[in-house]
Design goal:
The chain is mainly alpha-helical and 491 residues long. It is 66% helix and 2% strand.
Length: 491
């Protein structure tokens, strides 16, 4: 039944108060009631993502402290920080990103598709093993790019289980008959399928790389080359998921589709298809320059053109829809999340282009890039909850969501800029505790700025986790009160 978007706002919810420009937006259609079981898989993957981020958030405090110039001198064992860093990155980068993507992808397939629950529990068991391995003493941390590891069978088994379970789920979703959630615009669904396909290509690249590597190599070299090619393709999966959330959030904010479905198919085909050949880069061996340089060039030239074109189309859409005509758009967390993600994406591109040598400009670049994905996943999480949660579920006030996204987005930008500033004065990357030597005022200022930004970002992250944990607990309370939903439906 058509309703005006203006009347879909309610005080104290995520939606900001109605503003004149919203009244000019075309009517939206309320999705039909959907059986509760339809979203069970989505909620499971979402809770795995949030649970992983809770643990990663706690570890991030330790990692940030390990970079503060004065405090770092008190810590004599840099391996302590590196072990924390490995588990933190594994949870905050690998698990959070791809479990979140799986939650969104699950909306594209029929409910409880065969094997879906089994694949999920395999992936969840892998996360548990990764965390358990992080508590072991004497385990060697390996800070390999993209997927850092602890060189211990328990941790490696955990990573393998998570990747295998998630990949099997993604394949199942790609092969399943179309059953997209009514709340997902078609262009966002296309982007999510592209993300799932890129994830599967990354797994194939890992297998191809591993089959050509000898365990006789030193530990760091082995894992660096094992994860190098597939790690690059994983970034494409992340970018496709980020773009899906851009399109989704703008459609939710304006009630208008951003792109025609066919146009989206062309763009995401251009983004993903070149990277499907990544496993072939190992044809001359994993140690050959074709593998290393080929993966680098694919990411260098294969991502930013599509991102910039879709960004331009998103900006055009916002202008044409009138969504920016009044002052109230600044208080809409959907638009706050979008603009924070855009700002961090552009910052990541700029810092990536300025990389000269091995220093902290490199982590500045990728912290901006992964921050862009993280903040849009955070913004999407609020809307995701409104799709998969019962109508009785309490929602955090929109002003808290807006504050949280702003804290994380600004903090992450300052964090990345501080890293870059320190790197421009020669600060080395992947050094912690007593092994970090600050030789100039520029490095000291840069690391100080980085620490400040990191603490602000952590504050935003912890606020997000608090809001999400409260949300999940509300889901469980609502599930124990079936009389609220006599027909067993969700909104």
């Amino acid at each position: 039944m058509p309703i005006s978007l203006q009347h879909s706002f309610a005080p104290g919810t995520l939606n900001p108060p109605a503003a004149p420009h919203f009244a000019r937006v075309k009517s939206s259609v309320t999705p039909p009631a959907v059986p509760v079981s339809h979203y069970a898989a989505a909620r499971r993957w979402f809770m795995l993502a949030i649970g992983s981020l809770v643990i990663a958030g706690l570890l991030s405090l330790v990692v940030v402290v390990g970079r503060i110039p004065v405090v770092s001198e008190w810590i004599a064992d840099p391996l302590f920080f590196k072990r924390c860093l490995v588990v933190h990155v594994g949870l905050a980068l690998v698990i959070w990103f791809h479990a979140s993507a799986a939650a969104w992808v699950s909306l594209l397939q029929p409910p409880e598709a065969r094997g879906g629950r089994f694949f999920f529990w395999g992936a969840a068991a892998g996360v548990g093993l990764m965390v358990a391995a992080g508590t072991l003493r004497g385990v060697t941390p390996v800070l390999s790019n993209y997927v850092p590891v602890l060189d211990h069978p328990l941790f490696l088994l955990g990573v393998a289980l998570f990747f295998a379970g998630t990949a099997a789920f993604m394949v199942q979703a790609l092969l399943a008959p179309a059953g997209a959630c009514p709340a997902l615009p078609r262009e966002a669904a296309t982007a999510l399928r592209a993300s799932a396909l890129a994830f599967c290509a990354a797994m194939a690249t890992f297998v191809a790389a591993g089959s050509g590597l000898s365990r006789g190599l030193d530990t760091h070299t082995y894992y660096e080359f094992l994860f190098w090619g597939g790690g690059h393709v994983l970034q494409v999966a992340n970018i496709a998921a980020m773009l899906a959330l851009w399109l989704f959030l703008l459609q939710r904010a304006t009630a208008l589709p951003v792109l025609p479905a066919k146009t989206a198919a062309w763009f995401f085909g251009l983004l993903v298809l070149p990277h499907l050949g990544a496993p072939l880069l190992t044809i001359k061996g994993t140690l050959d320059n074709l593998y290393h340089e080929g993966a680098t060039q694919l990411m260098r030239w294969g991502i930013f053109p599509v991102v910039l074109v879709i960004l331009a189309l998103c900006v055009r859409h916002l202008r044409a829809s009138g969504a920016l005509a009044g002052p109230d758009w600044r208080r809409d967390p959907r638009l706050t999340g979008f603009f924070c993600s855009v700002g961090l994406t552009l910052l990541g591109f700029a810092l990536g282009a300025s990389i000269r040598g091995v220093n902290t400009v490199v982590p500045g670049h990728y912290h901006a890039s992964i921050g862009a994905v993280t903040v849009v996943f955070m913004a999407g999480a609020y809307e995701f909850s409104r799709i998969v949660a019962p109508a009785a579920t309490g929602r955090p006030a929109w002003r808290w969501a807006n504050l949280q996204l702003g804290l994380f987005g600004v903090g992450q930008a300052v964090f990345a800029l501080g890293f870059a500033l320190a790197g421009m004065f020669g600060a080395g990357r992947k050094t912690y505790g007593a092994e970090q030597h600050v030789r100039s005022a520029g490095e000291l200022i840069g690391l100080g700025v980085m620490s400040l930004g990191g603490l602000v970002a952590v504050a935003g992250g912890l606020l997000f986790l608090g809001l999400m944990v409260r949300q999940i607990l509300a889901w469980h309370r609502a599930a124990r009160a079936p009389e609220i939903f006599p027909q067993g439906t969700l909104p």
